[in-house]
């Protein structure tokens, strides 16, 4: 499906439906996350901005398509941020990106990289 | 060769038209257009990268490098010649690009995008805390001179800056068009399609992407220096991710078929932003968002696809823009 859209379409997979379902489920999870965090923070229209980048960082650190990777990466990012705020406040602005750059430098495809398809 | 001369002639004509237009149009438009062209240059660099299949989400770092190089040269070295500052900005960004290119060489897709984003945000964090470089307040720039010419009035300064920006823009656009049509430019499209195949055919994807990355860095730096001069102020926001996101958006809006489309979409976005912030002061983000949504819904291939569509309907087709030829039927090939 993600490797070759045309091929899976030809094999009878309804590509559009898979996309719509995946997107819907993603939106559901995002909304759930928002509902869980809302009581702990102040809610305002610009709230999405920081979440977009943080979730990007989490996904990339964990490895694309890896559920356990995302969970561990979320812990790493959260702990790194809290530690930075406590220990070196000047680094708080970019600590997440620093962690992301370090992880990617050591493991270019994220912590839980999966085998990738080579298309010749 | 005739094609290249044609492109250069078109560039000269475009510059003459833009210079004349700047004389006729009101001063506010000249200011908006200068900024739009400067940002368009950065977006053009991004289009060069995108043709090779790489999307950088941290192009702001080069924009910022160019702007800070120009700003610091003006503040510390006392350089106030716009042309010199422009060259300094471009060279600084190019050097930065050559330093970080080896680090990025092994990454593709979302990993390339997030790593460039990470680098630009680290730069943001450092600049924000470096008080000798102005910290989060940034640096103010004064009015530049132009090869010994000191424009007498603020209007003359903004016009001179506009003319310089237009000149740089048409030169960059023409050179990029020539690059796109060259062997290396066409190899970028092939590398975007399938890198292993390109390597197997004997070309180096690393070199092709490296050259594209260097071009993007240079254009980013020049665009940054021009923006710094036209705004008169620089701050770490130049490398904030929303700035980089704006360039990605411009590049997607224009598509990769046409270089002119990049600057047209840049001017349109800048105008929409100015007008909506004037007429809908509280909801201008909403107006901009609706505009972007309409473009994505009705022109998913970008504004450049309008040019492409027209060319195709005229029956004149460029090799790289043609849809893949229909496969040969089995009976005839046997």
In short:
Chain A has 120 residues and is mostly helical.
General description of the model:
The complex is a heterodimer of chains A (120) and B (334). Chain A has 120 residues and is mostly helical. Chain A has two domains: 1-43; 44-120, no CATH class. Chain A is built from five helices and no strands. Chain A has helices spanning 5-10, 15-37, 48-62, 67-87, 95-106. Chain B has one domain (7-317). Chains A and B meet through helix 3 and helix 5 of A and helix 5 and helix 8 of B.
β-sheet strand percentage of chain B:
under 5%
Helix content of chain A: 55-70%
* Succession of helices and strands of chain B: HHHHHEHHHHEHHHHH
- The largest beta-sheet of chain B arranges its strands as 1-2
Q: Could you say how many structural domains of chain B there are in total?
A: 1
The Cα radius of gyration of chain B reads: 21 Å
The dominant shape of chain A is flat
Question: Which overall shape of chain B is indicated by the principal axes computed on the Cα atoms?
Answer: globular
How does the major sheet of chain B shape up?
Answer: 2 strands, antiparallel
Structural class of chain A: mainly alpha
List the helices and strands and how they pair.
The complex is a heterodimer of chains A (120) and B (334).
Chain A (H helix, E strand, L loop, with lengths): L4 H6 L4 H23 L10 H15 L4 H21 L7 H12 L14
Helix pairs in contact in A: 3-4, 3-5
Chain B lengths: L1 H23 L2 H25 L8 H17 L5 H23 L4 H21 L9 E2 L13 H28 L1 H11 L1 H6 L4 H27 L1 E2 L6 H14 L4 H21 L4 H15 L5 H10 L16 H4 L1
Antiparallel strand pairs in B: 1-2
Helix pairs in contact in B: 1-6, 2-6, 2-7, 2-9, 2-10, 2-11, 3-4, 3-9, 4-9, 6-7, 6-9, 7-9, 10-11, 11-12
